Amino acid sequence: MSMILGLYNYWIVIVLMMIGFYIIIAHGHLIKKIVGLNIFQTSVFIFYISLGKVEGGTAPIWQESITLYSNPLPHVLILTAIVVGIATTALGLALTIRLKEAYGTIDEDEIQAMDNQAMDNQDKESKPC
Amino acid sequence: MLAHLPILQVIVPLMAAPACLILRRPQLVWLFTLLASALAFIISILLLQQVMQTGTISYELGGWSPPWGIEYRIDKLNAFIALIISGVSTVVLLAAQTSIEKEIPQDKHTLFYILYLLSLTGMLGIVTTGDAFNVFVFLEISSLSAYSLIALGRDRRALWASFQYLIMGTIGATFILIGIGLMYQMTGTLNMADLATRLPEVAETRTVTTAYVFFIVGVCLKLALFPLHLWLPNAYAHAPSIVTAFFAATSTKVAAYLLIRFTFSIFGVSFSFTTLPMETLFLGLGLLGIFVASTVAIYQDNIKHVFAYSSVAQIGYMIVGFSMSTNAGLSAMLLHVFNHALMKGALFLALGAVLYRVGSTQLRDFQGLGRQMPLTMAAIVVAGLSLIGVPLTVGFVSKWYLVVAAIEKGWWPVAGLVLLASLLAVVYVWRIVETAYFKAPVVGKELVQEAPMTFLIPVWILVSANVYFGIDTRISVDIATAAAQSLFGVVP
Questions:
Q1: What is the pTM assigned to this prediction?
Q2: What ranges make up the beta strands (E) of B61-125?
Q3: In whole angstroms, what is the distance from residue B71 CA to residue B374 CA?
Q4: pLDDT class of A92 with cuts at 50, 70, 90
């Protein structure tokens, strides 16, 4: 029982991570892929944040009467990682817009099919040579 | 000034990037970028000299002493890799102005150089830093700018390649982040030297094993180790030529560096190769990568795809050297990192010249180029010979050391397979030679001219380096051996 309740933060992380990973792999819709990527990254953020918690410790703000603080370092690290995550999402969405303009669709399979067709056409052109 | 070289290595390109916005005129921006990259190159030469003479340099960022502050730690290994990165970057940039003229719209030129500098910053940062979390931050700086650079390709497929790389790359980087988090959880430190002393104490736990595995899988995604290479061929084929030449020579090398650094100096050989079956795993994947990717390369019609798959195969050679976990094997790997950067830099830059003149890199468009672009094609042939591993080129040197290391280890079949795989390279290089020299030009392409000097000079600098370091092996072999020895010196 303590395996589940005592380590509940890790279970949340694992479940979120798998949900995100599954969405990235299973969905062909590019926006959904980006959302999946976000959930995947968020699970790691939660993992880091829960790492810093010291049982009985308070927020790491200095005060006379308090002796036990939570570890603020993982929080600082994850602030950086969140910024990186936002940049990645923004770039991913920008690329999706460009893809929509160029292909007229944001479905993975349809884009792949168009690319494959373009490849086949090139092959046909090269045959007569 | 000299004391601050480790940080200047990263700060120079980082500060130069936004400064490009002020200059505005593309010509000026190009010169400025070239200057910044050349400066980074000079700094890396000075650093390497300093390290070879006096040993490891430790630089405390902002005066905060490690393990609390971030430490930049330069030893023989990363000084060597930084030299490769900044050197190739500078040479490739010589051709940038001419090449992007035809491949990238005029109004995006300044942005191109900014992204290029940021990518360079990221790679140099990964290599110089001595802090595990700093590695992640720089990795993302270089990756995010890499995705945008690839998306600048003129074909719409570049966008799709970039998106796929973004997804795969982010998964890889997040895996690395998980690995670093678990390491921090077990040791309470992010400083690499500190991690190296504290990890052995807790090495028996499952958490440390998990940390290592997450980290290595993430790095291997970035390294494009077979079978995690799926993003690489399209990204290389559809990115602007300059970007391909730069990345093919550097970005996978940075991942190779991380693999070496974390396996040998942080986790230690006894953990990664004795507790975990890394030897069999990497040897198997390396050999599979060599054979599968080389075979696929033979059947490609776009020459950029051919050399992209060949890159995956060359990474296989590096990993075979890595899997030996001996001094000789690691030296061979490092030599191949250096030599492969020279070969692929030359080849992709020459392809850029072909694209500039012919407008395509499909195999059929190479017909007759042997006479129309003699110097460019000669460069492709020499670099191709180097790729095969013909004596008097760098390719021979690294294959020689790899085979000797395999025999020393008693792995005769591996030595044989490595030699056999070179024959596959002969096939795909020969296809190009045959088309270029023994076929008449395509109708309508009879008037193709030799590439401009701005291309020929950097291409031939790299090609002559291929030959020079193939004959005079003292410099590259000495540094690679010294770097390998220093790694085994720290971790017996």
A1: 0.91
A2: 71-74
A3: 49
A4: very high
Distance, CA of B196 to CA of B202 (rounded, Å): 11
**Percent of chain B residues topping a pLDDT of 90:** 31
A74/B363 Cβ within 8 A = no
51-70 in chain A: CB under 8 A from chain B: 51
Q: Other C-beta atoms within 10 Å of B137: how many?
A: 18
Q: Is A10 in the B-facing interface, judged by CB distances under 8 Å?
A: no
Number of other residues whose CB lies within 10 A of the CB of residue B198: 17
Contact: B140, A87; criterion CB under 8 Å: yes
A6 φ, ψ (degrees, to nearest 5): -65, -30
Q: Which CATH number among 1.10.287.3510, 3.40.190.10, 1.20.1250.20, 1.10.3260.10 corresponds to the domain A2-126?
A: 1.10.287.3510
**Which of B140, B151, B171 lies closest to A84 in CB terms?**
B140
Average pLDDT over residues B286-314: 91
User: DSSP secondary-structure letter at B205?
Assistant: S
Residue in the structure block whose two tokens are 């040791």 = B187
User: SS3 of B492, please?
Assistant: coil
- Residue A122 banded pLDDT, cuts 50, 70, 90: low
- Does B442 sit within 8 Å of A115, measured CB to CB? no
Q: What is the pLDDT of residues A62-81, one digit of tens each?
A: 888 888 888 888 888 899 99
Bridge partner list, B131: B191
Instruction: Tell which of A77, A105, A112 to mutate to test the B interface (max B CBs under 10 Å).
Output: A77
Q: Which residues of B71-86 are buried (b: 16+ CB within 10 A; e: fewer)?
A: bbbbbbbbbbbbbbbb
Domain ranges in chain B are 300-492
Rg of chain B over CA atoms, in angstroms? 21
User: Quick check: B156 and A91 CB within 8 A?
Assistant: no
Q: What is the b/e burial string over A61-81, where b = at least 16 CB atoms within 10 angstroms of the residue's CB?
A: eeeeeeeeebeebbbebbeeb
Buried b / exposed e over B12-28, threshold 16 CB at 10 Å, is bbbebbeebeebeebee
Q: What is the DSSP string of A11-30?
A: HHHHHHHHHHHHHHHH--BH
Smallest Cα distance from B472 to chain A, Å: 43
Q: Confirm if B477 and B394 have CB atoms less than 8 A apart.
A: no
The whole-chain average pLDDT of chain A stands at 85
Q: Does residue B149 contact residue B141 with C-beta atoms inside 8 Å?
A: no
The distance between the two most distant Cα atoms of chain B, rounded to a whole number of Å, is 70
